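Bumping my old thread because nobody answered last time. Still need a sequence for this structure:
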């Protein structure tokens, strides 16, 4: 039986979502095809090199779907996708959605360790890559992964996705003539933000992800005149569907793909294409603000920009207050997760909400509770652990039965691991977290995975990875170790181990502390909170 590794919503809950019209039983690509039929000559997607109308997008997706079939990929097959930010991502996505080939949204930073793991976890049949990204030979990497995993082949997306111009009329975008997947069929697999070792996969269905994209598009008041600059890596939930690519194309707007988040790349794209909105992580938002401060003339590039979404890690209130006056656009804070729940401030919220909170659930059908350590619901204004359920928050990770038992409550609430406070006006403020990750400029690093590799270093007796404060990134990866008696361990030794493990660069510890002993909790586990407190004086010395 296919898809046995996926956790479904309970049938009564699914019926409720369907009955209420939240789940439409469509294919995620349907909304885009309707737009293509209505306005085939409108621009759907462009990057610095290429521009595709809606007609071209569908024609190109058709050709790509045929390429997937020729590569032996069939409905229900999963494929790892590790592609750069270019226009090709969009027709590739549409082709996968129509054919029912499920893309597993890998990051370009992933290396042998993560890709091999994901291939095994999802039982993927192929890996689709951009051949070279920033000097890294991803095709060679992909071929190495194919050799040591169940993957059957590596495919270069530049060959798979040809640029096909529409010849008029509206092509089908289902290529094969077979029935297209829809409703509760899997649409895409997103990756989790780093808890519990190697990445976990989250199955988003056509129903739930469609609802996700439409709801975010409504909250952001998108229309066919919206021009969205996709800056963050395209396989992330934020630029993909919050509202991102799927939200914007679903209403007939234009997606401009930026190959880089740098102001010198993004600002001219904003000016040239009349970009009206974009989504950034705080680190990048800060860089844009600093650029405008240093070169006030650069602000003229941003004239068309109406809305800046910022999320992925906590935006400092002081930085939030600078966005309106200095960039000349509205700010929307977004506190979201690939597992589902998206919180947003609203376009008509007062300033103190927009600059001082991370917003509230985007759907009236989202359920949230904030709990104390014993599972009781806390009062407003009291920090607690956020749990959630809802029409776009799946009930389990893919192929992870044991992990799901503690990531979800018995009645289906997802434990986000975030510590939040709800204000009496309903808006949430993220106060911290109770999960073992390092949030490095919005990219999540699993402490457990860093430690596992550190333990391979012969001189390491005990190891603990912790988040250390970093001015540019918010947090960086710190490693605290107790060496074996008489041994020395350097950061270079740890990096050599990281390389040998084929780990993503983002996991490489940036700072090493060697100590005699690690603080332990009452049950003998490493006490990370105490450790961070111990490291605090060292932080002050550095700055
Ligand atoms: C504090 N922490 C935040 C915020 C996410 C939109 C926006 C972000 C993500 C994302 C996303 C935060 N303030 N504003 O998928 O669609 C931390 C929390 C959360 C975790 C999820 C989207 N916004 N976070 O960041 O799956 O700890 O999704 O649980 O990568 O990021 O990470 P991820």
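Sorry it took so long. Here it is:
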């Amino acid at each position: 039986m296919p898809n046995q590794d996926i956790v479904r919503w309970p049938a009564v809950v699914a019926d409720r979502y369907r009955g209420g019209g939240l789940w439409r039983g469509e294919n995620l690509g349907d909304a885009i095809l309707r737009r293509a039929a209505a306005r085939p000559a409108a621009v759907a997607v462009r990057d610095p090199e290429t521009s595709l109308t809606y007609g071209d997008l569908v024609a190109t997706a058709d050709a790509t779907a045929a390429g997937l079939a020729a590569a032996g990929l069939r409905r229900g097959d999963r494929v790892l996708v590790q592609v750069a930010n270019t226009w090709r991502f969009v027709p590739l996505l549409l082709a996968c959605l129509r054919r029912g080939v499920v893309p597993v949204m890998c990051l370009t930073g992933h290396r042998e360790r993560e890709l091999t793991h994901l291939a095994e976890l999802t039982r993927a049949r192929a890996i689709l890559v951009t051949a070279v990204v920033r000097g890294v030979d991803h095709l060679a990497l992909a071929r190495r992964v194919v050799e040591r995993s169940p993957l059957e082949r590596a495919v270069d997306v530049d060959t798979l996705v040809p640029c096909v111009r529409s010849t008029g009329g509206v092509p089908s975008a289902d290529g094969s003539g077979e029935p297209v997947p829809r409703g509760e069929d899997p649409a895409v697999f997103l990756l989790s933000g780093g808890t519990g070792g190697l990445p976990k996969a989250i199955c988003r269905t056509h129903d739930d992800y469609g609802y996700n994209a439409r709801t975010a598009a409504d909250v952001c008041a998108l229309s066919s005149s919206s021009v969205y600059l996709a800056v963050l890596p395209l396989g992330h939930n934020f630029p993909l569907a919050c509202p991102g690519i799927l939200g914007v194309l679903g209403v007939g707007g234009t997606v401009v793909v930026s190959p880089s988040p740098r102001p010198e790349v993004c600002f001219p794209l904003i000016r040239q294409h009349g970009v009206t909105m974009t989504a950034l992580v705080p680190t990048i938002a800060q860089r844009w603000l600093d650029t405008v401060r240093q070169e006030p003339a650069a602000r003229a590039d941003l004239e068309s920009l109406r809305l800046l979404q910022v999320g992925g890690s906590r935006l400092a209130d002081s930085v939030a207050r600078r966005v309106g006056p200095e960039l000349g656009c509205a700010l929307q804070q977004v506190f979201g997760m690939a597992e589902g729940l998206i919180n947003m401030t609203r376009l008509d919220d007062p300033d103190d909400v927009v600059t001082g909170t991370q917003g509230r659930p985007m759907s009236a059908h989202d359920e949230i509770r904030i709990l104390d350590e014993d599972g009781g619901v806390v009062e407003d204004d009291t920090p607690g652990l956020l749990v959630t359920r809802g029409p776009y928050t799946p009930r389990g990770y893919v192929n992870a039965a044991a992990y799901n038992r503690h990531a979800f409550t018995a009645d289906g609430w997802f434990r986000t691991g975030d510590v939040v406070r709800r204000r009496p006006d309903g808006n949430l403020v993220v106060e911290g977290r109770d999960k073992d990750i390092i949030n490095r400029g919005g990219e999540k690093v699993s402490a457990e995975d860093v430690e596992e590799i550190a333990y391979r270093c012969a001189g390491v007796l005990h190891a603990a990875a912790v988040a250390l404060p970093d001015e540019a990134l918010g947090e960086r990866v710190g490693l605290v170790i107790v060496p074996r008696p008489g041994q020395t361990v350097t950061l270079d030794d740890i990096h050599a181990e990281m390389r040998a493990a084929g780990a993503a660069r983002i996991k490489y510890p940036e700072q090493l502390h060697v100590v005699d002993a690690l603080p332990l909790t009452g049950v003998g586990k490493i006490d990370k909170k105490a450790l961070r407190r111990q490291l605090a004086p060292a932080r002050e010395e550095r700055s």
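The two ends are 57 Å apart (CA to CA). Let me know if any region looks off to you.
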